[in-house]
Design goal:
Blueprint: E1 3-12, E2 15-24, E3 35-41, E4 48-51, H1 53-61, E5 65-66, H2 68-76, H3 79-91, H4 96-171
Parallel strand pairs: 1-5
Antiparallel strand pairs: 1-2, 2-3, 3-4
Helix pairs in contact: 1-3, 3-4
């Protein structure tokens, strides 16, 4: 049965992570597998790789063929190196103690490189945050400087309005209310009553005619 060491996709859309598995080459990519060898998560920086080195080496010794991506992951974790060193043991060129010594030295050097990379990334991230903060401070200072003249103009206009209102109030005399006890303004003189027209004198009664004497 031909066996392949390959990646099996997991995770959600846009943020996948992978299992490193040994599976029958005829099975589907995300189907059944023979053994899970590790995890590969490309969403972190640097990428997170957890791998069972010894089991991966055994599958290689049994003839399993890794895909290109799986080979790169195995090489990154030292699986391909250890498989090569163990080949020297089979040929009698190396002992198992020498293999472990060389492999551990390689792991130590690799770990130092990874740690240096992490420190460099952290330093770059800190510098980027500091620059962003400085840029934000400068932008705030510019906004404050731009807003200051406008505030001064508003204050000046308000002061001018107050001064104008004060001047207007001083120029307008206040009407004093009459003190208590003061006589009120005389009422308008009444128009003289219309004199009654004298009654028409009655005409004197006609003198009686003298009586005839007998």
């Amino acid at each position: 049965m031909p066996v392949k060491i390959r990646l099996q996709r997991h995770g959600k859309k846009g943020k996948p992570f992978y299992w490193v598995v040994a599976a029958d080459s005829r099975s589907k990519r995300d189907g059944k597998f023979l053994e899970k060898l590790g995890v590969y998560n490309p969403n972190t920086n640097p990428a997170t790789i957890e791998l069972n080195v010894d089991n991966s080496v055994k599958w290689l010794q049994n003839g399993a063929q890794p895909t290109d991506t799986a080979r790169a992951i195995l090489s990154y974790k030292g699986v391909m190196l250890k498989h090569h060193l163990l080949g020297g043991v089979r040929k009698g060129a190396l002992t198992e103690e020498q293999v472990e010594e060389r492999f551990n030295a390689w792991l130590s050097e690799k770990e130092n490189l990874i740690q240096a990379k992490k420190e460099g990334l952290n330093k770059e991230e800190a510098e980027a945050r500091a620059k962003a903060l400085e840029a934000e401070k400068e932008a705030n200072a510019k906004r404050i400087a731009a807003a200051a003249p406008a505030e001064e103009e508003v204050a000046e206009e308000a002061a001018e309005e107050v001064a104008a209102e004060t001047a207007t109030e001083e120029a307008t005399p206040e009407t004093e209310a009459p003190e208590a006890g003061e006589a009120e303004a005389p009422a308008a003189e009444e128009a003289p009553a219309t004199e009654e027209a004298p009654a028409t004198e009655e005409a004197p009664a006609a003198e009686e005619a003298p009586k005839k004497e007998d």
